[in-house]
Design a protein that fits this description.
The protein has helices at about 5-15, 20-35, 45-55, 70-75, 95-100, 115-125, 135-145, 170-180, 200-225; strands spanning about 40, 60-65, 85-90, 105-110, 125-130, 150-155, 185-190, 230-235, 240. The chain has about 240 residues and is α/β, with parallel strands linked by helices. The protein has one domain. Strands 1-6-5-4-3-2-7-8-9 form a nine-stranded mixed β-sheet, sandwiched between helices. β2, α4 (about 70-75) and β3 (about 85-90) form a beta-alpha-beta unit. α2 runs parallel beside α7 and α8 (about 170-180) runs parallel beside α9. It is globular. The two termini are about 20 Å apart.
């Protein structure tokens, strides 16, 4: 999504949650510095070319952190025709991918998953897209240089200094924006759950629920307006078109 089209959505998110654009930009600056210390940084056009080469003209299987039955996970393990799919893990879903014996091709992360697994997936060939926002500056500075494989950066505001802004709010919906922006033919969502925040501590549950609602709204937006075909995997392993609310 072009930044000019995304910025009104970003402004809406800032107002909804009371986030600071300045804090987001400070974290983005920290990410630029951290990328300069990375073993294989991908900046600007180089990052975009790598993502186009990975996703262009191919279907993508996007893996989230929601509930998953063995029937649903068959898609990740290639037992239901998912072998040719590019696998994109949303942050902590990297652990699920590795447990299923599948190294993700791309990890979209704001660095709040189990990061040793993300570093291991990077060592085994995964490309990593690290996202900077106002609350993760410390993690950005500490972990970005630890990825041994190719690593690119994304930010919430205007893309600059080699960072990208594909759009998106949470790792899960941002993975879909990446699939859309870089030419995936379809995006199959596995283990995406936008309706339950029961695992969240009571004190922050209402904020989590609002974040999930926002993420679902963004998936609905791309399902209606985007070029990529959005599908979802049910707990019985069946695949159906995404149903926008």
């Amino acid at each position: 999504m072009d930044h000019r089209d995304w910025d009104p959505e970003y402004e809406r998110i800032l107002r909804r949650f009371g986030f600071s654009r300045l804090s987001d930009e400070e974290s983005a600056q920290a990410l630029r510095r951290a990328l300069s210390r990375s073993a294989r940084p991908l900046l600007g056009g180089e990052a975009e070319r790598a993502l186009h080469e990975l996703l262009g003209g191919r279907p993508a299987l996007l893996v989230g952190g929601g509930p998953a039955t063995p029937e649903a996970l068959d898609h990740l393990q290639g037992k239901r025709g998912a072998g040719p799919f590019v696998v994109i893990a949303a942050d902590g879903a990297t652990t699920r991918c590795l447990a299923a014996g599948r190294v993700p091709d791309l990890i979209v992360t704001d660095l709040d998953g189990f990061l040793p697994d993300e570093v291991e997936a990077s060592r085994r060939g995964a490309m990593v897209l690290v996202h900077a926002h106002g609350d993760n500056r410390g993690a950005v500075e500490e972990w970005t240089p630890r990825f041994p494989g190719p690593v690119a950066g994304s930010c919430a505001g205007a893309p600059s200094g080699g960072l990208l802004n594909p759009g998106g709010f949470t790792d899960g919906d941002r993975a879909l924006f990446v699939a859309e922006d870089y030419g995936a033919t379809r995006a199959r969502l596995l283990s995406y759950d936008f309706d339950s925040a029961s695992a969240e501590p009571v004190g922050t549950r209402s904020v989590k629920e609002e974040k999930l609602r926002t993420a679902r709204e963004l998936v609905d937006l791309l399902a209606r307006r985007g070029r990529v075909m959005v599908e979802t995997v049910g707990q019985d392993g069946s695949v159906r078109p995404w149903s926008a609310r």
